[in-house]
Amino acid sequence: MSKLKEKLMLSEKGYSDLKKAITACTITNIVLLLPSMVACLLFWELLKPFTGEAISWDALWKLLGLGVVAAILVFLAAKNDYRKTYIASYKEASTTRLRIAEHLRKLPMSFFNTKDLSDITTNMMADCSSMESMLSSTIPPLIANIISVTLICICLAFFDWRMALAIFCTMPITFLIIWCGRKLQLRLFDKQVDVKLEASSQIQEYLEGIKIIKACGLGGSRFSTLDKALQAMRKIAIRVELASGILVQGASLVLQAGLGITIFIGTVLITGGQIELLPLLVLFMFSTQIYGPILAILSQLTSLFHLGTVTNRMRTLLTTPAMEGEDKDVSKYDIELKSVTFGYNQDDVIKDVSFSIPTGSVTALVGPSGSGKSTISKLIARFWDVRKGQISIGGMDVRTIEPEHLMRCMSFVFQDVTLFNDTVFNNIRVGNMNATEEQVMAAAKAAYCNEFIQRLPDGYQTILGENGSTLSGGERQRISIARALLKDAPIILLDEATASLDPENEVLIQRAIAKLVEGKTVIMIAHRLRTVVDADQILVLDNGRLVEHGTHDELMKKNGLYHKLFHIQQESLGWAV
Ligand SMILES: Nc1ncnc2c1ncn2[C@@H]1O[C@H](COP(=O)(O)OP(=O)(O)OP(=O)(O)O)[C@@H](O)[C@H]1O
Asked: Where do the ABC transporter domain residues begin and end (predicted)?
């Protein structure tokens, strides 16, 4: 049983609930035998005239009473069984989904680099649902059926071992058939999981790219790719059903051949005078009922074979090591990079970079596209851990600080702002979940959001829709600045937020940023060099290396890459289309 706990990755509560569910199912199965036993006894009583005995009406009334009691017991047992299996399994699946969500939060970004979003969604939804149905409709009934069939087998053996042998003689062959088909089923099921993943990733891509599909007239070709993925899903689903159908039906045929053997042995025994007619008829009646639970075991076993495929993916996710660190509070905010090297894959994109950023200063990261500016800011925030070298904040290696503690001292303003499908108010409060209404409003005003929020249908209570699709680029960025203002973190990471905005929005955002960075340690990634001329230091990156650093004036005098980039941009400012 504890192996099952490990295999299903159950919580302590889930494991104890599973044991209770198995007990409840077993009780239901045993109680369910009562009506059959009453029916057999009734049958026996009604057949008495054929053996020259008289029917006892007293016994018939008693059996009727027993039947009513059996029906009540069946109802109570089934109710208890439902509560213990279904409700407990829904609770456990929801606990597992939360466990996955909680764990995902702690994983390094490198994990998301290698995993498809639809894969993780499948983990959280489909795999947890499969686990839910294993916990409710497969494992407890399977174990309960095994227990009750064994009990019946023992009772029958006491009653007449020869007939018991006849009833169960085909059972080993049926299990052998299911066991031999296991490999084929597993192979098909693994394939089905891959095909389903491919289809869900195609659907996601189709929906996400719907704008581009319309704009570029890609409807036909994209649709046929999606169509192929869905057709593949249909084909494999039919093959999986066909394989398990053939196996279970084949096994069930063999099993029910036992009925013929039972009748044959019964006839032999009665003609040899070795069994009475009434017990024989009752045994015949019982044997027709015993195959039901055995058939249920067969189909539950085939579902159980898939358990590995379902749980292996969940296990991979839940056992991926989280980023570790101590709950240290950062109290000094100077940043230092010592010989830092890093790569997302095998190739290094940051190569032996060293620099330091004093507390309260403004540092600009500049350089050609792909030179590694964003990567450096993400390494400082410990979205990834460095490959070689060290990054420290306030003298502490960031790898020794628990990521959520580290995040408390940093605010981000990125170009791609993520907004949640929630109210504007709650979207701003993301910056500080303990902020009061007044503080949220004050941050919104300081970030020049108040005016456009008041124009929304329900003001601060307007729901923004998925990823704030109803707001303009400038409005989204001002909300992200309001969040950062509310967080009031001592270190600010800015990915040039005004890169693609109209002049009016740009002025508002520059003013909001000016308020945000007052007295803070600021690292800004700048694409337009005229925005960094006042920075305390400018770090120039090229192909992952730090090639120049200094103030604007110093770098202009050096006549190097910065000087060249600055002049190219100045010239382009004069261009007109
Ligand atoms: N998640 C990722 N996985 C793999 N490679 C990545 C990833 N993010 C960035 N890179 C690669 O790392 C290199 C540096 O990228 P980075 O985004 O840091 O450059 P950047 O200077 O900020 O570029 P830009 O100015 O265009 O935003 C690039 O070659 C890029 O293709």
From this structure: 335-568
Chosen domain end from 259, 292, 319: 319
For ligand 1, atom 17, the nearest C-alpha belongs to 374
Residues 232 and 345 in one domain: no
344 in ligand 1 pocket by Cβ < 6 Å?
yes
Q: What is the CATH number of the domain that holds 549?
A: 3.40.50.300
CB-based contacts of 384: which residues, under 8 Å, 6+ apart?
108, 109, 110, 342, 344, 378
Whole-number CA gyration radius for the chain: 35
Q: Tell me, yes or no, whether 148 and 284 share the same domain.
A: yes
* Centroid of ligand 1 to alpha carbon of 370 (angstroms): 5
Domain hosting residue 250, numbered range: 1-319
Tell me the C-alpha distance between 482 and 442, whole Å: 9
Atom 10, ligand 1: which residue's CA is nearest? 344
- 226 Cα: distance to centroid of ligand 1 (angstroms): 30
Query: Has residue 329 been placed in a domain?
Result: no
Lowest mean pLDDT among 234-243, 435-444, 530-539: 530-539
| Residue with CA nearest ligand 1 atom 13 | 370
3-state secondary structure of 372: coil
Q: Are residues 314 and 341 in the same domain?
A: no
For residue 74, what are the contacts with CB-CB under 8 A and spacing of at least 6?
28, 31, 32, 34, 35
Mark whether 309 and 387 lie in a shared domain.
Answer: no
Pairing relationship of beta strands 396-397 and 388-393 according to DSSP bridges: antiparallel
Closest C-alpha to ligand 1, atom 27: 369
Distance 371 CA to ligand 1 centre (A): 7
Number of structural domains in the chain? 2
State which of 112, 344, 376 you would mutate to test the pocket of ligand 1, scoring each by most atoms of that ligand within 8 A of its C-beta: 344
Given a cut of 90, whether residue 406 has pLDDT beyond it is no
Ligand 1 mean position, distance from CA 368 (Å): 11
* pLDDT confidence band for 308 (50 / 70 / 90): confident
Let me know whether 40 and 158 are in one domain: yes
Taking Cα atoms as reference points, which of 93, 86, 81 lies closest to residue 10?
93
370: Cβ below 6 Å to ligand 1?
yes
371 lines ligand 1 (CB under 6 A): yes
CATH code for the domain of 67: 1.20.1560.10
Confidence of residue 502 (pLDDT cuts 50, 70, 90): low
User: 253-287 pLDDT, tens per residue?
Assistant: 898 888 889 889 989 998 988 888 777 877 887 77
Q: Is the pTM here over 0.80, yes or no?
A: no
By three-state DSSP, how is residue 494 classified? Answer: strand
Q: Are 383 and 398 in contact (CB under 8 A)?
A: no
pLDDT in tens, 109-149: 777 766 777 777 777 777 788 888 888 888 888 888 888 88
Atom of ligand 1 nearest to the CA of 344: 4
Point out the ligand 1 atom lying closest to the alpha carbon of residue 372.
18
Residue type, 471: L
**What number is the average pLDDT over the span 157-163?**
87
477 C-alpha vs ligand 1 centroid, how far in Å?
21
